[in-house]
Amino acid sequence: MDFMDASGVDSWRGSAKLLPMARPSVALAYMPFVVPDLFTEAIRVRLADVADVIDHEPLLQLNDERAAAVLPRVEILLTSWGCPAIDADVLAKATQLKAVVHAAGTIKMHITDACWDRGIAVTSANAGNAIPVAEFTLATILLANKRVFPMQQKYRQERSFRWWPAEFPGLGNYRKTIGIVGASTIGRIVIDLLRPFAFRVLVFDPFLSAADAARLGVEQTALDELVATSDVVSLHAPALLETHHMIDARRLALMPHGATLINTARGWLVDADALEKELVAGRIFAVIDTTEPELLPEASPLYDLPNVFLTPHVAGAMGTETQRMAELAVDEIERYARGEPFHYAIRREDLPRIA
Questions:
Q1: Would you tell me which of 126, 151, 225, 349 could form a disulfide with 105, CB atoms 3.0–4.6 Å apart?
Q2: Which of 244, 245, 313, 343 is catalytic?
Q3: Is the separation of the CB atoms in 202 and 229 below 8 Å?
């Protein structure tokens, strides 16, 4: 058991025309801005090979006239970012609905108790979204240890050369300790990507067994020990009541001078005020892709601090990377059509520990 079930991503399956299967009826529900990157023409053709798409224009609302005409005919609702909540009123119209296939990450914004009560099967492409987050994390771990972010700014300003290790003590990746908070899907991919490097990898996850830790090749440790002994602390836990501000002022103070905090998970996990104080003091570094609030105020010092690399929530799947999630979603619809269970099924009891 872990914060989130670990799983891989199936490869492209080719045309479904060769497979003996029933053809479920499918409707789409997501914001139209995702279409050009997420559902390419090739993916749309592949979907049409396996299912009857009732309307190729996605539903923007589930309570208007068009939805009222489409929903009674739907067996599978193919959703993505911006899908409205699928509540009891929606389900009263969608009398034939059997499954929701989500071509994005979290399902918590649109899957309601009414879906679980009705026994709707739910699956998510979170495993496809995990890969670019893990890749982003690996890149920033390597660059953070190399002190590339503050060094680049200093070089731009001063336009002179010097012996950089004297100015950035501890510079380099060799034999550094990396602390992973959360052996989630993303956390496990990050662990796998770290294998070629000479890192010591620590993991905190209250659901990780000793046997799983051994298989992953990591050292289990308490969270306090992890933050106190890691050169880089990378967050991969979900936003749960138990994880709110788990990185608080006390734990930030435990981080060694010059250590780096990486947050590609949720701003929810970190006490934002305490983090700002530490960063303004210049004692630690941070790579921050997710903040609380999501958009920081214009006056936030994090935009300009030399020890902060701040990005606007871009670690997850974007552009061409989203196609991996669309492919995974169509894989799931193929399985459904063959009468097979979903590979990435989400159960009601999973909700307390998934993102």
A1: 126
A2: 313
A3: yes
